[in-house]
Design goal:
single chain; 528 residues; alpha/beta; Rossmann fold; Hect, E3 ligase catalytic domain fold; 3 domains; 5-stranded mixed beta sheet; 4-stranded mixed beta sheet; 16 helices; 20 strands; 45% helix; flat; disordered C terminus
Amino acid sequence: MKVAIYARYSSDNQREASIADQFRICREFARRQGWQISNEYSDHAVSGATLLRSGFQAMMQSALRKEVDVVLAESLDRFSRDQEDTAGLFKRLTFAGVSIVTLAEGDITFLHIGLKGTMNAMFLKELADKTRRGLRGRVETGKSGGGLCYGYRVVRRLENGAVTTGEREINADEAAIVRRIFRDYAAGASPKHIAKTLNKEDIPGPQGALWSPSTIHGNPKRGIGILHNELYVGRLVWNRQRFLKDPDTGRRIARTNPQSEWITKDVPELRILDDELWQAVRDRYASIQRKWGQAERFNQFRRPKYMFSGLTKCGVCGAGFIVYSREHLGCFGARGRGTCDNRLTIPRQEVETRVLRALQDKLMRKDFFEEFCREFAKEMNRLRMERGARINSAKRELARIESRRKKLIDLVLDDQLPASEAKEELLANAKRREELGMADLYRSKVEELAAALQREDTRLEASEMLRGLIEAIVLTPESGQLRIELRGNLAAMLTVARKTTRSPESGDLIVPVQLVAGAGFEPATFGL
């Protein structure tokens, strides 16, 4: 039997040798069983609360391809401590015919999944509670509850044979920058102007990164951002927010806690600003908010998102191309941070028009969508029948299916065939006919999407569908103008069609958008 070995250690076990130890005892067990070790997978310093691990995913792919018969680990919690993830692992490997064996539990069954999964989930909950209890204890004594704010440095001291943690002291150089930011803002400078000036002077921002307006103005409700950090006036606030893991993406999402749960401690030794300067900034910030209405209504005054909001990127620095005036887009790196030379702008409407023109004109060119259909039929027939099937054979099969459909209907009408039997074959043939009729489907979907984008009642929904096909729209300076590259699934469809198409006639070479293939060939991307 072939076996894959998996090992993992997390941040609660800071021994790199742990991986080697797990591999060693698993190898010894496999040899005693007479198993052949196919491969070994590991993840270093990664929590078991997430499946977003390269080693784990590689092991799963190998098992699902049935390259191994058994997956072996030290214990079930090496795979995951999440109940849902553990159950999913067991379900998928059982379906693939691959057994799970651990040194601690033996052959894994449904019983192990239920009981051990519950115990692992309880361990995570208890660990989180103990960690928070320890952090609160440190905050109550005036020490940091985690993280390092700009303007401070970590202090390590040896007390009673142990290294102290949670202590901070003022970083004089960074503290001077903090005072400068507050003075400039109180004097009327905008966060954008302050950020550009600091970047121009090569002053490193927090963690050595570039300064941006959001670094300075932050989020007042969460107390983040230079202008809202109460630690600068000697007031340590902890437990403003908590983090929850999105079960679908695995990302941590911040949630603001009620103010009654905040823990506040005075730490005068960490004060950088005087009360007068702090209050001057608070007054100006409040004044700006009043101009927009109440702070909580600020989002009502934001510009509405345009069709490709969040997708336009600078081809020079990679920063977003965002709205800078009512109708123009510009590089945030150049205009917000002052770190990019790409200062060209482009009307928002022009970007939308050029991309949509590519959608309508280029996708509807006969040579493009015919080549696309040939490629699609070739791929489907390779998977279903034999490699290298041609489009002509697909057309013949389509004709045969249509003929068979008519015969089935005649047999049912003549009472020579039960309707239930005919229905099953008709449904199967209908599905196959859709696959073989991709040329018509392709054309109709492009026409429907293009038309929907022109109608007010369907424009929003159609825009969202279109956005789902695009990974990025990259704008790069070229001869004093911006060249647009469209990347993503939509671009992949266009590029597949262009790979084997003859060069157009002279004059057709000038196209509004250059198309760059995305992550893969996904022929059925249109969801209309």
